[in-house]
Amino acid sequence: MTSSKKIENQLVDHLSSEGEIQKPEELRSWLNESDENQQSYQKYQRIWATSERLGKAGRYQSDSAWTKVEHQIKRKQQKVVRLVRLSYAAMGAAASLVVILAFAFYTGQFSLQQNNMQLTTNYGSRTEVVLPDGTKVKLNSGSELEYHFNRLTKSREVVLKGEGFFHVAKDGHPFCIQTPQGMGLEVLGTTFNISAYPEDEVVHTALVEGSVKLSNEKNQTTILSPGQIMAFNSKDQSFSERDANLSHIVGWTENKIYLDNTSLKATSVLLERWFDVSIQIIPEKLGEDIHYTGVLEEKDIRDVLHALSELSEIKYSIEGNEILVRKR
């Protein structure tokens, strides 16, 4: 058993006994090693107390105790991460703490902040999370989400860089999303998908159910109805309805990539995010000349590239995470 694993287990045993089990020698030595370890121990005590309190609460109240978690997942350190609100931990406080401590020891990134939450997903991975208000979010590869509950305006505020599928909890408080391109979204309770990667000029919003209001920096607004897909152009701050299949837009939540006459260039961008690779197309014009229609469900980039090469006149070479695509 590794040293960090032993410390983790001893912390859980000590905290779960409510102090009845004395700190073992290894744990005392670890605490005495640095002020940082002392501070970490105090954080774990607070997490333990919070998890017990939330476990007894029965259900979430937006103006009562909050579960505050900040996870910064460094690229290439973690492939798949699933975060669960402490109050939803069915296995009890001890099991919740084991997961949290293990994650904290592994990444060295764990802190609590009042009413705030931050989450970053890696390229090559997708993440599910329950926000403090009960809203369920699936984050696509290479996405960042910041959540804040504004007690003055009683609104739930989110900054999204990337793509997320939201099922917003209805608690009477506005739920607002801001994107890097200057588009805002406001909703009371609904299900929708929004794609707003910082490098993308166009933001796409697809409404599954409910109603959302979109706004731009010119204070112009538009309201979406279920089934509508709206494109927002950051250059001229314009909105335009997009003719597309809603199930294809949200297909990534089921680990599917739908291609609707999608260019090789656009497909490569999707694959770069999906598999955490870098794709170069030579000549560049080739990326616009070839288009695909279909669905990709392969779990390995080599299988995807093989399928694409069967459908078009391309060949590829792979070196590490660098991929070169040429005309065959």
From TrEMBL:
<keyword id="KW-0472">Membrane</keyword>
<keyword id="KW-1133">Transmembrane helix</keyword>
<dbReference type="InterPro" id="IPR012373">
    <property type="entry name" value="Ferrdict_sens_TM"/>
</dbReference>
<feature type="domain" description="Protein FecR C-terminal">
    <location>
        <begin position="256"/>
        <end position="325"/>
    </location>
</feature>
<feature type="region of interest" description="Disordered">
    <location>
        <begin position="1"/>
        <end position="20"/>
    </location>
</feature>
<feature type="domain" description="FecR protein">
    <location>
        <begin position="119"/>
        <end position="213"/>
    </location>
</feature>
<dbReference type="InterPro" id="IPR032508">
    <property type="entry name" value="FecR_C"/>
</dbReference>
<dbReference type="Pfam" id="PF16344">
    <property type="entry name" value="FecR_C"/>
</dbReference>
<dbReference type="GO" id="GO:0016989">
    <property type="term" value="F:sigma factor antagonist activity"/>
</dbReference>
<dbReference type="InterPro" id="IPR006860">
    <property type="entry name" value="FecR"/>
</dbReference>
<keyword id="KW-0812">Transmembrane</keyword>
<dbReference type="Pfam" id="PF04773">
    <property type="entry name" value="FecR"/>
</dbReference>
<feature type="transmembrane region" description="Helical">
    <location>
        <begin position="83"/>
        <end position="106"/>
    </location>
</feature>
<protein>
    <submittedName>
        <fullName>FecR family protein</fullName>
    </submittedName>
</protein>
